[in-house]
């Protein structure tokens, strides 16, 4: 089968289209013929070595498709089922295996592409808004990169939960998308971002900041919080945050800083299924998932270049 293999850490040129043996499902696993694969920043971290692991490897963990084989001990999933997952073992490929307990059925009315586009970012939005800082009606929150895949979902879902969303974006086009998703206020990045946020909140600051940008926004995020507010640093699109003195959390108002990740929020099949059920219910009731572009598998490098350069809004898919 065709697959994108990383043999040495590096730039987009490290993504090699290769002919590799199709995997076989082992105990408790399923083999899925993928119809759509999600492209995510975490894939770039794996390509560059920021997240290290054994090489060579087939990149990618998110995707959707049809089960074509099941391994020993699998009874919950059958051949022919449409499923999606964020834990495929190499989803930049035509086929991939995943633990049967950690694939979710795709409901009628949701396409494979929509499922692949929403799983990782949708589950992330779910745990950020339900667990990291449980948004309450009347809260004001700050969402960075609000026209990105996670940002658009955070904005839509938080608005449905009764929050007022202040969004940050970099262009007029992205501002229109953020407003269309429900953002009450849309700001550009800049040195005075925190003061503008405080001006919009009567000097109080926001209950929570959802920051997937990292180094470029961290200081403003911290300065935008209300007393005992929560900074959820869930990504580092602009680079990792430099080490800092924890005393800053005290002087900022006894605020909280957390670095949540999806792996710790889908630890059991029941937890994953609960989040996926909520996510698909939101989607079927009108929460939009924006697919910015679709790329052939052979153009995985171009997809990652576009994502890394922040030329995109919403989700990028590979079509194996």
Quaternary structure annotation: single chain
User: What name does CATH use for the topology of the largest domain?
Assistant: Quinone Oxidoreductase, Chain A, domain 1
Q: Give the number of helices.
A: 9
Give start-end ranges of low-pLDDT stretches: none
The appropriate CATH architecture of the largest domain is Alpha-Beta Complex
Rg (C-alpha, Å) = 20 Å
Q: CATH class of the largest domain, please?
A: Alpha Beta
The computed structural class is alpha/beta
Overall pLDDT, averaged?
A: 96
For the record, the count of structural domains works out to: 2
CATH superfamily descriptor of the largest domain: Medium-chain alcohol dehydrogenases, catalytic domain
Distance between the termini: 10 Å
- Estimate what percentage of residues fall within beta strands: 25-35%
How many strands?
16
> What fraction, in percent, of the residue positions are helical?
25-40%
Question: Can you walk me through this structure?
Answer:
The protein is an alpha/beta fold and 320 residues long. The chain has 2 domains: 2-119 and 266-319, Alpha-Beta Complex (Quinone Oxidoreductase, Chain A, domain 1); 137-258, NAD(P)-binding Rossmann-like Domain (Rossmann fold). Helix content is 29%, strand content 27%. It has 9 helices and 16 strands. The strands form 3 sheets. Strands 3, 5, 6, 7, 8, 15 and 16 form a 7-stranded mixed beta sheet that branches. Strands 11-10-9-12-13-14 form a 6-stranded parallel beta sheet, with helices on both faces. Strand 12, helix 6 (218-223) and strand 13 form a beta-alpha-beta unit. Helix 2 crosses helix 3 (149-160) and helix 2 crosses helix 8.
């Amino acid at each position: 089968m065709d697959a994108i293999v990383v043999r040495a850490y590096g730039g987009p040129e490290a993504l090699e289209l290769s002919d590799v043996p199709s995997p076989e499902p082992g105990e408790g696993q399923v083999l899925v013929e993928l119809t759509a694969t999600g492209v995510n920043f975490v894939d770039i971290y794996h390509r560059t070595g920021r997240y290290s692991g054994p090489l060579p490897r087939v990149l990618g963990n998110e995707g959707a498709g049809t089960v074509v084989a099941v391994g020993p001990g699998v009874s919950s999933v059958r051949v022919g089922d449409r499923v999606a997952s964020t834990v495929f073992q190499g989803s930049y490929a035509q086929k991939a295996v995943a633990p049967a307990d950690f694939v979710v059925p795709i409901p009628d009315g949701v396409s494979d592409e929509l499922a692949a586009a929403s799983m990782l970012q949708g589950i992330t939005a779910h745990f950020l808004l339900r667990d990291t800082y449980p948004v309450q009606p009347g809260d004001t929150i700050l969402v960075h990169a609000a026209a990105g895949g996670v940002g658009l979902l955070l904005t839509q879902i938080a608005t449905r939960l009764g929050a007022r969303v202040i969004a940050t974006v970099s262009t007029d086009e992205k501002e229109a998308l953020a407003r269309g998703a429900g953002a009450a206020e849309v700001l550009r990045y800049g040195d005075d971002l925190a003061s503008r946020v405080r001006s919009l909140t009567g000097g109080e600051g926001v209950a929570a900041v959802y920051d997937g940008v990292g180094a470029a926004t961290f200081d403003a995020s911290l300065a935008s919080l209300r007393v005992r507010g929560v900074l959820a640093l869930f990504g580092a699109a602009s680079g990792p945050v430099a080490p800092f003195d924890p005393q800053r959390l005290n002087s900022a108002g006894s605020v909280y800083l957390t670095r949540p990740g999806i792996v710790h929020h889908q630890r059991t099949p029941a937890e994953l299924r609960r989040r996926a059920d909520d996510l698909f219910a939101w989607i079927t009731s009108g929460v939009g998932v924006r697919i910015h572009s679709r790329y052939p598998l052979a153009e995985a490098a171009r997809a990652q270049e576009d994502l890394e350069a922040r030329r995109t809004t919403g989700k990028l898919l590979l079509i194996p």
